[in-house]
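Narrative summary of target 7.
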Amino acid sequence: MKKLLREFTPEFLAANRYKLPAAEALESGGAILLDVRSADEADCMSIAEDLENYPEIGYLHIPMNELPDRLDRLPPDRDILLFCRTTSRSAMVYAFLRTQGFDRVRLVEGGYVALVKLLVEAHGI
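Modeled conformation, tokenized:
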């Protein structure tokens, strides 16, 4: 955690290296979109089926509170793009995953809301 906190310099934060616009997330071939919302949220509103137009993107739903026990589901050799409803939970998961040795982690800017908006605009979903 100390190493991660040291990385969070004003320059790092200003460069937004830890974020990725939602449009770029949908174009990130080989990436995993990791939904860290609760099970109830994902059951009510999911984009898993809507991602069929993006076969090169993987999708995983692991609620934030279950992630510590399910780290083995995450591929360390792929980009992991985190999202929740906004970005508050995914920011916590970002920090946690970085402390666990996952270096290829980024936040999807705007979270679930931004992804849905793009999917609706692009495919009328």
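The chain has a mean pLDDT of 87.
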